[in-house]
Amino acid sequence: MDLIEFPSLGRRDLRDLRLGVDGAFKDFTRAYGETLESIFEPLKTFLVFLEDLLITSPWPLVLLVLVGIVFLMSRSRTIAIGSLIALCLIGFFGMWEDTMRTVAMVAVCTMVAVVFGIPIGILMARSDRAQALINPVLDLMQTMPSFVYLIPVVMIFGLGKVPGVIAVVIYAIPPMIRLTNLGIRLVDQDVLEAADAFGSSGWQKLRNVQLPLALPTIMAGINQCIMMSLSMVVVASMIGVKGLGQPVLQAINNQYFTMGVMNGLAIVAIAIIFDRATQAYGRRLQKHSEVVHG
Amino acid sequence: MVEATGIEIRNLYKIFGPNGAEMVEKVKAGMSKTELNDDYNHVLGLNDINISMPGGKIQVVMGLSGSGKSTLIRHINRLIDPTAGEVLYGDDDVCQMSIRQLRDFRRHKTAMVFQKFALLPHRTVMQNAVYGLEIQGVDQKEAAERASRWIARVGLEGFEDNYPNQLSGGMQQRVGLARALTNDADILLMDEAFSALDPLIRMDMQSVLLDLQEELHKTIVFITHDLDEALRLGDRIAILRDGAVVQQGTGQDIVLNPADEYISSFVKEVNRSRVILVDTVMAAGQKLEGGLSIPKGVLLEEAAKRFADSGEGVANIVDASGNPIGVLNVQDTMRAMVTPAEH
Predict the structure, then answer these.
(1) Residue A4 domain-assigned?
(2) Closest approach of chain B CAs to the CA of A195, in angstroms?
């Protein structure tokens, strides 16, 4: 027996297998592609609307609103001024429009991830069976090279914004789900027992005890989700998502060093602004736990 | 005010493990806790508990850690499901209630105070206190009114907007107490409520509870591992060991007639002058002409003080209307105070 060569399917069998699966998937795409696309139509409309709003509004207004949001979330003058400087530099170096596209994209992806991630996380926390089923899926989503799931997504939706959003959400939603699950599971058993003892229904327990106490962990999930969405913009640009990713991609292909660095730094700047603002917001929500009786 | 309903616990068993129901028969047939654990890998939590908890009184359940006392109190509001037996509140068996009935029972009939306070850290004192009412669906304004009365009553006025983290342990437990009292339930379940507090604060909280009980007359079930606390608070005391009741009765019963070695070893350290009443020690039916008189129902400690103050050696024990019902002399008083009951 030959122990050097691993016994494998023959070349022909493998080719048939590939052709079979690919063919079936193509048929599926042809049959349901349009339906699926129409399902995602509202999402696309919203993304386009947000993008247009950010790009076509007068820049001072957009700047003011963005810095205002950052200040309202963080209540920190330092963070707000830092954001103002960073955004001004971005505009000065001619990356305003691309940056706004990226901000709109990340905002929409994060919203989608939150809307789906938190309920799934809650489900996982409430049922061990759900957790056992969903965990491997999350592992798959996090470790599967993103190019692999770009293939079917592009086959169904073609190039453009929607496949971009889907690819980014697939990559960015797992920490949202995992941290929601973790946060709820880590809620103090004593407090849960108290909630039961006073006759809370399941929903009351979730709303009054589990979600508020899991909130810091959930906020960390949202933060991670934003960071991961941003790190996906370059990959997403490969399937036609406009924004800061595209010049980076162009820079890679043409060896434009300065262009790459500038757009890369703009991504970093946005990431830091998002991160500081959400973290400061998360800390502010936890004000009650800071003051400890001596 | 209508007298609060008592709680009747009958033949209650709790066996932890996958086949608890089967194991009950074995335990009824006399299998011991160790055997059950070694041979069948089940843990005997409660073994044939029968306690009749009087309405409007404080029932203390005392035991060391692992005796099953916390398990027992959680059967009263069914935070733990029994393996067999009944927990009767009036005509209702808590163990037979549906989820909905049980939720209503917990909302309206019981309130609980926990050893580790179990306050909601993200809510202020006021928001914690209204928690029970909020779950019942009571109007916010009314809930706040009712809660603020109890917050003041437990001595937390002015702290309504503080978070639990900003308060000391004793104050946190006052919040726990206010939360339970605001619920205005018949039954107050207190699971080692004062065990985590410093001795002085614990005494303080015991006084708060006794004062409150004087006006409220709730059915209070109080769990403790501290015999002094049990004797101070309990109208009736049940002592648990290894999941079974070893003895129950009034504090005096237990101190004077400990059921076995185990209990007498506890009782030895007790300050007897604060448990035994003059009625128990006096020579009943006798009568002195004139001299000192001491009302019945007074503790020996108080009687000794009166003897010392007056310089007399004997006294009449008189009932509420001043009629002598017996005679107490100073020797008997001293003897009762210092001789531990032998088993």
Answers:
(1) no
(2) 9
From chain B, pick out residues whose CB is under 8 angstroms from the CB of A217. Answer: none
How far is the CA of A212 from the CAs of A125, B8, B159, in angstroms? 15, 38, 22
Would you call B121 an interface residue with chain A, using a CB distance cutoff of 8 Å?
Answer: yes
Number of domains in chain A: 1
**Taking the C-alpha atoms of A220, A224, A226 and A232 in order, what is their torsion angle to the nearest 10 degrees?**
-170
Q: Does B150 touch chain A (CB under 8 A)?
A: no
Nearest-Cα residue of chain A relative to residue B163: A288
Distance CA A205, CA A122 (A): 12
CB-based contact B228:B151 (threshold 8 Å) = no
Look up the domain containing A201 and give its range: 31-284
List phi, psi (to 5°) of A130.
-60, -40
**What value of ipTM does the predicted structure carry?**
0.85
Provide the greatest CA pair distance for chain A: 76
Question: pTM of the prediction?
Answer: 0.84
Candidate from B108, B118, B136 with C-beta closest to A194 = B118
CATH class in words for B53-82+110-273: alpha beta
Q: Where are the domains of chain B?
A: 53-82+110-273, 276-338
CB A148 within 8 A of CB A208: no
A to B CB pairs, distance under 8 Å: 79
Closest residue, chain A, to B113 (C-alpha): A194
Which chain B residues contact residue A199 at CB under 8 A? 103-108, 132, 135-136
What CA–CA distance (Å, rounded) separates B86 from B65? 24
CATH superfamily of the B276-338 domain:
CBS-domain (3.10.580.10)
**In Å, how far is A230's CA from the nearest CA of chain B?**
32
User: Could you list the pLDDT tens digit for every one of the 294 residues in chain A?
Assistant: 678 888 888 889 999 999 999 999 999 988 888 888 899 999 999 999 999 999 999 999 999 999 999 999 999 999 999 999 999 999 999 999 999 999 999 999 999 999 999 999 999 999 999 999 999 999 999 898 888 888 888 888 888 899 999 999 999 999 999 999 999 999 999 999 999 999 999 999 999 999 999 999 999 999 999 999 998 888 889 888 899 999 999 999 999 999 999 999 999 999 999 999 999 998 888 777 666 655
Confirm whether A208 is domain-assigned: yes
Q: Which residues of B touch A194 (CB under 8 A)?
A: 112, 114, 118-120
User: Is A189 touching B (CB cutoff 8 A)?
Assistant: no
Residues of B in contact with A291 (CB under 8 A): 163, 165-166
Instruction: Report the CATH number that the domain containing residue A184 is assigned in CATH.
Output: 1.10.3720.10
Confirm whether A184 is domain-assigned: yes
